[in-house]
Amino acid sequence: MRLSVVIPLFNESAVLSRLIAEVYQSLVALGEAFEVVCVDDGSSDDTLQQLLQLKGEKPELKVVALSRNFGLQPAIAAGLEYTKGEFVVVMDGDLQDPPELIKDLFQKIQETKGDVVSAVRSERGEKFSKRFYINVFHKIFRNISEEAQIEQAGNFCIMSRRAVSAILKFTEHNRYFPGIRNFIGFQHDTIVYDRPERADGIAKMNSRKLFSLAADAIYSFSKWPIKLCLYLGLLGVVVFLLAIIYALVSKFAGLAPFGWSSTFLAISFFGSVQLTFLGLIGEYVYRIYKEVQKRPVYLVKEVYE
């Protein structure tokens, strides 16, 4: 098997037929032996039924049905587990990752003889608010991550079998696939493309899920949340020492003492800082607890191949 394509799907019945048709058109044009691994992430519509119907017409199609909805990141991990190709493409199932770029990705990795080629988005077709949040996240994450990150690179990429094998060694529950892909090292190249608007259907990555994914990325690949707590704590100590000096000077100078408002503001400030620190620590404790449980990242109900 020369090439595998992994496509995680959740309630994508509106675009599924077009997606598979365009993916097949691109793969057939390459003239290489291929397989398409579609992961049904517990869809509540007829996505799985459509996949099974398409499988009867396309023998290269492999369907991995998860027992329930585990999320995009576990679905990608499940798809990678069931691939056999020498090179593996990962793409979203909403047609915002253009299937015609599979050819460009394959040619690029052949030319560079590297292990990863990521598709970097130069323009995005989403609404302004979503673009704004994503751009802010990428800039922050690039600057605070302990590893070098490629800005505006999502899931869309092609990887060698060596890179896929390395990624499959990761067992963590709070996953961020682009971060893991950068963490493994190896030779990493890019191509640039314009990300179009969603073809049809409803976007599954709403604001809540985007913020959750951003939190997983930052907590997993950066120590800055904890360092921020330390720096703010030190700043609080400095402010406290200055307040003591000011109080002593005021007393000996005979200045009028402040009333209840200054006391209330000081208590509110330090109380808010402490609660923020507890919240950050709680996030880390929760993630540690999830890892200690060692529950499966995903469960497969059935594989149709």
From TrEMBL:
The chain crosses the membrane at residues 228-249, 264-286. The keyword Heme does not apply. The keyword Glycosyltransferase applies. Residues 4-164 form the Glycosyltransferase 2-like domain. Pfam families: Glycos_transf_2. One of its GO terms (molecular function) is glycosyltransferase activity. It is a multi-pass membrane protein. This is Glycosyltransferase family 2 protein. It comes from Draconibacterium halophilum. It is found in: Membrane. Signal peptide: none annotated. GO terms for cellular component: plasma membrane. Keywords: Glycosyltransferase, Membrane, Transferase, Transmembrane, Transmembrane helix.
